[in-house]
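Appendix B, record 7
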Amino acid sequence: MSKYLLMKLGAFGDLSFFLPTLDQIHAQDKDAEITWIVGNSYADLLKHIPSIHRVIGVNETALLTGNFRARVYETLKLWSKLAIHYHQVWIGHRTRGALLLLRLRVLGSYFQIVRKPSLFLKWMRNEIVVPPLTLHEGLAFKLLAETALNKPIPQKSWKADYSWVPAADPSFHLQSPYIVVHLGGGQNGKTDFLLKQWPHWSKFLNKLTVQTNQNVVLVGAPSERALAHPILTGLNLSSRLISLVGRTTFLELLAVIKGAQRFVGV
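Structure tokens (predicted):
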């Protein structure tokens, strides 16, 4: 059995662009055993994906921005959960730290997207050169998969399988068809994306309810409740507006979005 180690911590946007790698690995090696290193925020979510055999969660905040002691502790904790050898190691981060974090502990053939070639590190890895913002991140991961699997992947085959996402929780009382609106801008262990918070949601939602008779479901993270409050108090949408901001787990959020007729977000 071939063993693959994937490393993509988050946030979920880029994480979702990395998911098609799972089907591509199993298409070439149906008995492959896949281990995925991910941030704790998404570990429980990835455990629902049947094609991943093992999910290893890490404290990405401590690992990325913690003090020296916190980083060492989190690194040693991760190392204790890893095997010595994997057939292939795929790294969906461009940093040298991500490479060295695994290279100092794990043997195998390494594949990593990078900003630019490195004379010093190229003996440690197979480099897929994709400078940031030059190519959609999903296509950067597609190049990584094509290099590692040594085969071209048709564009139509590069998509994630979301059949594992369940139906929305009946307790949310969602009546189809409905429209999902995400108010926030996202965040990860290093960045709060304030510039992604659109300032015109109130006008948009008022206009939306005039032009459609569908229910509108607002979604977002617990940290985005403060963003939702003035919008909710300023609207008069009665029973057609359902706010689930901060009320769902990540899996429940995917289920709500999966059942929507339309999704609107930044």
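Remarks on this record: The beta strands are 3-7, 33-39, 54-58, 85-91, 107-114, 126-129, 178-182, 215-219, 241-243, 262-264. DSSP finds ten helices and ten strands in the chain.
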